[in-house]
Design brief:
With 218 residues, this protein is of the alpha/beta class. Helix content is 27%, strand content 15%. The protein contains 6 helices and 7 strands, in the order E-E-H-E-H-E-H-E-H-E-E-H-H. The protein has a 7-stranded mixed β-sheet. Strand 2, helix 1 and strand 3 form a beta-alpha-beta unit. Helix 1 runs parallel beside helix 5. The chain is globular, with a radius of gyration of 17 Å.
């Protein structure tokens, strides 16, 4: 069925054993938030994001973007433009010896103006559809995975999928509107000053991997 479609791109082969992942919101978490931007030249990483991703990647976590892109449904830009966004992200990451394990996006919105995208889907956050699809395709250990985002919809999606969550607090969330699923496990100011704490204090699997590298080698 059309409303069950989940749009995604993956770059790496699946592993036989389950591996935890870091699911990342794109705008406002991984890169600077420029509303509805699909111009690759305007993409800028958030301060400290590359350093944080390097640590998480070396600790053995898959790096997967999960993003709502309702601009497609609203006719702000074509779906094909997201390929350029993904390519630019990987170009930037490659210079830091990084790559994304997946780039999953939802192009839908129930109030969209393009018929085929104007649906209530299962992949738009706070629904967990994209996370569950990524987990199925890439054999991800959701119980030991984390969703990092700057919106309560990221937190709710992560918890609904069985992940732990980290909210990057930018002061734009309405606390009274939070449900139980929307309460983050941890709230951080950014990924710059807190990146070492994320690995060493919040992610026990990473500590085990660092302590026993032979046991957790890929």
């Amino acid at each position: 069925m059309e409303n069950q479609k989940i749009w995604h791109r993956t770059n790496k082969l699946n592993s036989q054993s389950q591996i935890p992942a870091i699911f990342l919101d794109k705008d406002g978490t991984l890169i600077e938030n420029v509303p509805n931007n699909v111009d690759p030249q305007l993409i800028e990483m958030k301060i400290g994001a590359l350093e944080g991703l390097q640590i998480l990647s070396k600790a053995g976590y898959k790096l997967i973007v999960i993003t709502n892109q309702s601009g497609v449904a609203r006719d702000y830009f074509p779906e094909s433009a997201l390929m350029g966004v993904e390519a630019r992200l990987n170009e930037i990451l490659e210079k830091a010896d990084l790559s994304l394990d997946g780039f999953y996006y939802c192009p839908h919105h129930p109030n969209g103006v393009i018929f085929e995208y104007a649906i209530a889907c299962d992949c738009r956050k706070p629904k967990p559809g994209l996370i569950l699809r990524a987990a199925s395709e890439q054999n991800i250990d959701l119980a030991n995975s984390w969703f990092i985002g700057d919106n309560l919809s990221d937190v709710e999606a992560g918890h609904s999928a069985g992940c732990k969550t980290i909210l990057i607090d930018q002061g734009n969330q309405s606390q009274p509107q939070m449900s139980r699923l929307g309460i983050a496990d941890y709230i951080l100011a950014n990924l710059s000053n807190e990146r070492y704490m994320i690995v060493n204090d919040l992610l026990p699997w990473a500590k085990l991997q660092a302590k026993f590298p032979d046991m957790y080698s890929k």
